[in-house]
Amino acid sequence: MKNEKPSIFQPAERPLSLRLLVLSGSSLMCVASAIDPLRAANRVMGEAAFDWRVVTVDGEAAVTTSGLPISSSGRFDPGEKVDAVIVVGGFGTRSEGGAALSSALRRAARSAKAVGGVEAGTWLLARAGLLDGRAATTHWEDMEDFSAAFPGIDVRPDRYVIDGPVFTTGGASPTFDLMLALIRARLGMATALDVASVFIYDQARAATDAQPLVSLGRLDGYDPRLAQAIRAMEAHIDNPLTVAAIARRAGITARTLEKAFIKAIGETPGAYYLRLRLSAARRLVLDTRLPMADIAGRAGFSSAAAFSRAFSQMFEISPTAMRHR
């Protein structure tokens, strides 16, 4: 049975206390996206509407993927009375902690009103059993593996998901969106708009918008046909379409599509598509232990040998050598 604790996403007058459990290997942008909107809300309100502390498993500073450390105010205490615990993790942290951390997170969830997972933090919540029977999301690069690892979770490709006392996000930008939603729910739309203005942030996406493989920025407005073609490519990484088929989906000729790509991106549709597939493969080479044959199939190559040749030509190193390095 789902926990029916009062939601933190509702109007409130008293400050919300949060603990951010940051693991080494997290993205600096994810940490900032979780904290800075709260800091700005306090500034806009002129009072401490949000009270947060950064903690780590061992009390030492967490080192982000950029090499910059995040200072810790102490060791994570699962018995501490707080409103919400947010776990922030990166690709290298999804298997961190083991049984001890899972037990600590379950204990924290029993007393807190809410628990959240940012990026790979979702994996740690899932491993602790806190997402069983609930809807959740994680970064799109991990989504397929996450779904296979936790079949009892309703995995969604959304930017962020709020399901009762549990919330999850897919990365840095969705985390910023989530924090704006929290600020809006507790303090009102005017305050949320003021916070967004502090960062000159234009929240043009909804929570349920799918996470894209390619962040097009303002390319959607620049040339909708080009954006449509790229979306078709990213939806068929493992089973590539022909350029003619992509052009048909965009409602233009292959020649017009080629001109649009060269003008906007500087390369042909075929070259861009290959780079997109190999970039997806590169992430799997570096961030997983999948066999090269499986990665080749996920990237749309007929054989591991063909994949290795294309990869080596693109990155000037074989996929096996890159993984070892």
Mean pLDDT value: 89
Largest sheet report: 6 strands, mixed
Q: Helical proportion? A: 40-55%
Which series of helices and strands comes N to C?
EHEEEEHEHEHEEEHHHHHHHHHH
Radius of gyration, taken over Cα atoms and rounded to an integer in Å: 21 Å
- What is the SS-derived class? alpha/beta
Search tags:
325 residues, alpha/beta, 6-stranded mixed sheet, two-stranded antiparallel ribbon, 14 helices, globular
Gist of the model:
The protein is 46% helix and 13% strand.
What this model shows, in words?
This protein is of the alpha/beta class and 325 residues long. 46% of the residues lie in helices and 13% in strands. It has 14 helices and 10 strands. The strands form 3 sheets. It has a 6-stranded mixed beta sheet with strand order 2-1-5-6-10-9, sandwiched between helices. Strands 3-4 form a two-stranded antiparallel ribbon. Helix 2 links the parallel strand 5 and strand 6. Helix 5 runs antiparallel to helix 6, helix 11 crosses helix 13 and helix 12 packs across helix 13. The protein is globular, with a radius of gyration of 21 Å. The model has no long low-confidence stretch (mean pLDDT 89).
SSE layout and pairings?
Layout: E1 16-22, H1 28-45, E2 50-55, E3 62-63, E4 69-70, E5 84-89, H2 98-111, E6 114-119, H3 121-127, E7 135-136, H4 143-149, E8 154-155, E9 160-163, E10 166-169, H5 172-187, H6 189-198, H7 219-222, H8 224-234, H9 243-250, H10 254-264, H11 269-287, H12 292-298, H13 304-315, H14 319-324
Parallel strand pairs: 1-2, 1-5, 5-6, 6-10, 7-8
Antiparallel strand pairs: 3-4, 9-10
Helix pairs in contact: 1-5, 1-6, 5-6, 8-9, 11-13, 12-13
